[in-house]
């Protein structure tokens, strides 16, 4: 039987514990200290590229990887805005995706 775990975190990025469960039932909560370290940051631009045959909006995304993990949101937003100015389609949204490494302390 395969076992899964889901890590829960609070808004301050401090991890409170993990649920351990398998296919049959939830086993419970284990409290532990886990340290997170930011390892990657990605800028995702979403552009509206048209409408489909039913009249629903169609979107395309472009991901810019290998951003400095220490880059501040304002700088990343400014880069996204600058890139959108030279793209063919209008910008619909900018997102920052971050990846963290987790280790049990």
Task: Reconstruct the topology from this structure.
Elements: E1 3-9, E2 15-22, E3 26-31, E4 34-51, E5 57-64, H1 73-85, E6 91-104
Antiparallel strand pairs: 1-2, 2-3, 4-5, 4-6
Number of helices: 1
Order of helices and strands: EEEEEHE
**Cross-sheet strand order for the largest sheet:** 1-2-3
First-residue to last-residue Cα separation: 27 Å
Give the strand content. over 45%
| Share of residues in helices | 10-25%
Q: What average pLDDT do the residues reach?
A: 78
- List unreliable stretches of 5+ residues: 1-16
Q: How many distinct folded domains? A: 2
Tell me, briefly, the overall form.
Answer: elongated
Biggest beta sheet attributes: 3 strands, antiparallel
Q: Structural class of the secondary structure composition? A: mainly beta
Q: What is the CA-based Rg, rounded?
A: 19 Å
Tally of DSSP β-strands: 6
Provide an overview of this structure:
The chain has 105 residues and is mainly beta. It has 2 domains: 3-32, no CATH class; 36-104, no CATH class. Helix content is 12%, strand content 58%. It has 1 helix and 6 strands. It has one helix spanning 73-85; strands spanning 3-9, 15-22, 26-31, 34-51, 57-64, 91-104. The strands form 2 sheets. It has a 3-stranded antiparallel sheet, with no helix packed on it. A hairpin with a 3-residue loop joins β2 and β3. The protein starts with a strand and ends with a strand. The model is unreliable at 1-16 (pLDDT under 50).
């Amino acid at each position: 039987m395969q076992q899964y775990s889901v890590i829960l975190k609070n808004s301050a990025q401090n991890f409170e514990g993990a649920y351990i469960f398998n296919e049959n039932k939830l086993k419970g909560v284990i409290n532990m200290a886990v340290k997170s370290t930011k390892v990657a940051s990605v800028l995702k631009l979403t552009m509206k590229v048209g409408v489909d045959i039913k009249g629903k909006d169609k979107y395309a995304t472009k991901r810019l990887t290998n951003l400095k993990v220490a880059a501040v949101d304002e700088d990343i937003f400014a880069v996204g805005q600058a890139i959108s100015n030279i793209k063919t389609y209008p910008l619909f949204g900018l997102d920052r995706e971050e990846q963290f490494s987790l280790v049990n302390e």
